[in-house]
Amino acid sequence: MKLTKTLSLFTGAALLLCSSVALANRFADVQVSATPLKDNVYMLTGAGGNMAAVAAPQGVLLIDSQYAELAEKIRASLKTLSPAELTTLINTHMHGDHVGGNAALAAQADIIAHANVKTRLAGNANFDPAGLPKTTITEKTTINHFGVELVLEPMPASHTDGDLLIWFPAQNIVHMGDLMFQGRFPFVDTNNGGNVQQYIENTRYVISKIDERTQVIPGHGELTNKAGLQQELAMMEQTLALVTAAKQQGVSEAELIAKGLGDEFKAWHWNFITEERWIKTLYQAVP
């Protein structure tokens, strides 16, 4: 009995160690890359949500922080842009692939987010409190980072109930956070205040505010523009119309999933929001 218990404890410890090593190594091959946009504004990619940075000689501002395991790679990438310290971190919303590196990167910086983001993160026992937002907003707020103006605009609940758009008016850039999944079905997090129809309305709103030269940083996917956002909107409008018509005709969710949305929407399917999951999201959104 004692031997069995000892073996059980050893096995459990070994599994925990393997799990820890796997977590530590899951981003071993990830490279954090920076793409220059305009006036010391960059888009950064790695794993998780796309980031952006304003790399001024006096201090660096970062939008979103991806995962804690990537903190050193993110920090090293920022140092290639400016030798200055990170002074400000803005979170576009509360999901882990956008806030996971908060504490590791910005415990000494001002962390800014929608007030609902702080509320939700503070209620998460697994979130390091050193990464909680220090400045929260609920209305449109303008900040100036060493000559670069940013407008932080809280949006009606759509992806979550704590979404921010980040505008760079002079540079004609907008960081949309997860209010855009470029070329993919979007994630509408209804468990955290998300709403399909408002997601569509927010997309229409952004389109009305930008022009053909605007650089659009999506939460996930490639740097895009107004045309890319219009394609995203058309996909959402068309698939919602298909699901609405089917549900009104008495087609069940299971039947609709079996039938699918059609070949024209296959390319939007991806590993997180599959066609099946997008159909379920739309079906549940239709009254």
From TrEMBL:
<dbReference type="InterPro" id="IPR001279">
    <property type="entry name" value="Metallo-B-lactamas"/>
</dbReference>
<protein>
    <submittedName>
        <fullName>Zn-dependent hydrolase</fullName>
    </submittedName>
</protein>
<dbReference type="Pfam" id="PF00753">
    <property type="entry name" value="Lactamase_B"/>
</dbReference>
<feature type="signal peptide">
    <location>
        <begin position="1"/>
        <end position="24"/>
    </location>
</feature>
<dbReference type="GO" id="GO:0017001">
    <property type="term" value="P:antibiotic catabolic process"/>
</dbReference>
<feature type="domain" description="Metallo-beta-lactamase">
    <location>
        <begin position="48"/>
        <end position="220"/>
    </location>
</feature>
<dbReference type="GO" id="GO:0016787">
    <property type="term" value="F:hydrolase activity"/>
</dbReference>
<keyword id="KW-0378">Hydrolase</keyword>
<dbReference type="InterPro" id="IPR050855">
    <property type="entry name" value="NDM-1-like"/>
</dbReference>
<dbReference type="InterPro" id="IPR036866">
    <property type="entry name" value="RibonucZ/Hydroxyglut_hydro"/>
</dbReference>
<comment type="similarity">
    <text>Belongs to the metallo-beta-lactamase superfamily. Class-B beta-lactamase family.</text>
</comment>
<keyword id="KW-0732">Signal</keyword>
